[in-house]
Amino acid sequence: MSEFDVLAISPKDADAPAKFAKSLRETGFAILKDHDMTPAEIDKMYDAWAGWFATDERFDFAVKPGTSDGYFGMKSENAKGSAHKDLKEFFHVYQNKEVPKSVEPVTRDFNEKLIKIGHMLLEWLDQETPQDVKDIMSEPMVNMVKGSDSNLLRILHYPPLPDDVEPGETRAAAHEDINLITLLVTGSEPGLQAQDVNGTWHDVPCQAGYITINSGDMLSQASKGYYPSTPHRVINPPKQENRSRYSMPLFMHPRPDVVLDHQTAGEFLDQRLKEIGLK
Ligand SMILES: O=C(O)CCC(=O)C(=O)O
Ligand SMILES: [Fe+2]
Questions:
Q1: Which atom number of ligand 1 is nearest to the Cα of residue 158?
Q2: Is the pLDDT score of 83 beyond 80?
Q3: pLDDT at residue 229 greater than cutoff 90
Q4: What is Dmax (Cα atoms) for the chain?
Q5: Residue-number span of the structural domain to which 36 is assigned
């Protein structure tokens, strides 16, 4: 399995916006380096949340019917069309929703900083997307998410695999994200893979300091397929590396009233949450 052969882009490059848009267009995927999220901030998040997932407090935060913030236990979510539930538990952080007190300061800081980086990347896309594609969009992409309550930071814990894993059960089955773009700081362990536009799977580099970005279904829909939505998955670890894995994707979501194509972002999200078992 080869690594995804995608050049890491630095915001210091004069042509960073063009490189970023080209990478998303051609591979559905991009890597950002030299950003201002430090390894120390990322480690602090992983330490804080590893501690939290080890407590029973998570059950007090169990997601309530009809809402999507809080704690989701093992086997809550399946990829669209998948027969199996994923081997993961996770917590959904929204800017205006409750976060456990013990992890709140570090999480709020991290979330805000990553959202800012997301704004910068969407501005790059607004700048670099061809005019005829922009013409079919209802508003600039960065405006779709500015002030949006729907941006979602998902803190994931994939526990060590139990002995009785059934064939076909994986940490995260192949799926595309629902939202516009996803920002993913490097996971605590490898395992993430992405599919290129030719259908070949690649390991996503698990290198400290990288933020990987993939485009989601809403971006594909809003751009009428100009930016492809990227299939990705998290494979099970080999036996000798059967440890917990943590990751923290930030899903940039438009305001619910934003018109994507024939549907609003709110309608689209509702439909997709039902398909993946979260609603
Ligand atoms: O854990 C990861 O690295 C990716 C998670 C993911 O793709 C998701 O939750 O949508
Ligand atoms: Fe995903």
A1: 1
A2: yes
A3: yes
A4: 54
A5: 8-275
State residue 278's pLDDT score. 79
User: b/e for 33-59, b at 16 or more Cβ within 10 A?
Assistant: eebebeeeebebbbebbeebbeeeebe
Closest ligand 1 atom to Cα of 156: 1
Token pair for residue 31?
Answer: 């890597």
153 found inside a domain: yes
For residue range 113-127, list pLDDT tens digits in order: 999 999 999 999 999
CA angle 193, 232, 70 (to 5 degrees): 110
- 16 CB under 6 A from ligand 1? no
Residue with tokens 């485009």: 215
pLDDT for position 150: 96
Q: Distance, CA 249 to ligand 1 centroid (Å)?
A: 6
- Domain presence at residue 1: no
Report the CATH number that the domain containing residue 186 is assigned in CATH: 2.60.120.330
Q: Does residue 5 have a pLDDT over 80?
A: no
Give a yes or no: residue 2 inside a domain.
no
Query: What span, in angstroms and rounded, lies between the C-alpha atoms of 270 and 279?
Result: 8
d(CA 279, CA 63): 11
174 lines ligand 1 (CB under 6 A): no
Using the structure block, give the residue that is written with the tokens 């279904």: 217
CA of 172 to the centre of ligand 1 (A): 7
CB neighbour class for 119 (10 Å; exposed up to 12, middle 13-18, buried from 19): middle
Is 230 inside a domain boundary? yes
Q: How many domains is the chain built from?
A: 1
User: What is the 278 CA–ligand 2 centroid distance (Å)?
Assistant: 14
The tokens describing 11, both together, are 């915001």
Ligand 1 pocket test, candidate residues 31, 155, 184, 207, most atoms within 8 A of CB: 184
